[in-house]
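I hope you will forgive my troubling you with a question about protein structure. I am sending you one protein, given as its amino acid sequence and as whole-number tokens for its backbone shapes. Thank you for your consideration; the sequence and its tokens are set out here:
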Amino acid sequence: MKKYNVAVVGATGAVGNEMIKMLEERDFPVANLRLLASSRSAGKKLKYKGQDVPVEELNKDSFKGMEIALFSAGASISKEYAPVAAREGVFVIDNSSAWRMDKDVPLVVPEVNPHHLKKDKKIIANPNCSTIQMVVVLKPIHDAARIKRVVVSTYQAVSGAGHKAMVELAEQVKSLADGKPAECKVFPYQIAYNVIPHIDIFLENDYTKEEMKMVHETKKIMGDDSIQLTATTVRVPVMRGHSESVNIETEKHLSAADARKMLAQAPGVILVDDPANKKYPLAIDCEGKIDTFVGRVRQDESISNGLNVWIVSDNLLKGAAWNAVQIAEELIKQKIV
């Protein structure tokens, strides 16, 4: 099997670390692995297959000889360096928001739209974490009954805001247990024992950027602008694993029983749906797993053609690192790279 020269940009971050782990766990055909980060991290060593791999400072020459680059270093870095890599003939799979809505850049979830990958499209966008897990579940329902409208409320883990957010939750829990006030640095309010209906900045329409990402990205990935979607995104005191309550209205009637059968066979989806025995997806159960879990599948009795579902996935894996590595696997499978 051919092996590939792979770069990971933002290698020392939470998602970058998971990308390295995924390359190892999937036994991805890596010939040479180049780990890239800012000057602050240059010289650090990270483990890959039992070996110490030094972290190099990202610069304009970092992509010479590379074939695939996984980016998770923020939108500004991606805007600057993704075109540099692409000009070197490297396929860039970018986890930031920088390229997602660019009409010339594929926005890909392999279970949904692998056909959007093309040889001449060197920059590929990884969708927002909350969008990815939702569209994996929406796809088989849309194919069977055509989705008209989606109403989604998310319950998003603090890891979606980075390592410092995870530290803040842990420190707040400890402080409160010790009778001390909770200190807020990352979030505008205390996140411990609280929920905050605010992720990313507020826009002119009073929705947050995170909410509108879900609206626009879903239409692009599904290839259907007629799907109407509205979202409320909420940060919850969970370390890892996003949960979503999703209400779906379809053109054709689809029974909950038929939906369960389809979802049980859908790629990348695991059905956990046995309410009589209190079995449904939980964030703590999906941590470290690459699949998307769905349960609480039931008819919406307020409309003729409606379903309610509960979706949970590890936001650092399927929501980020695994989806990126999965795209790289798809590039190889389709003989694009």
Observations:
- The first strand starts at residue 4 and ends at 9.
- Residues 164-189 form one domain.
- The chain has three domains: 4-127+320-333, 131-157+195-315, 164-189.
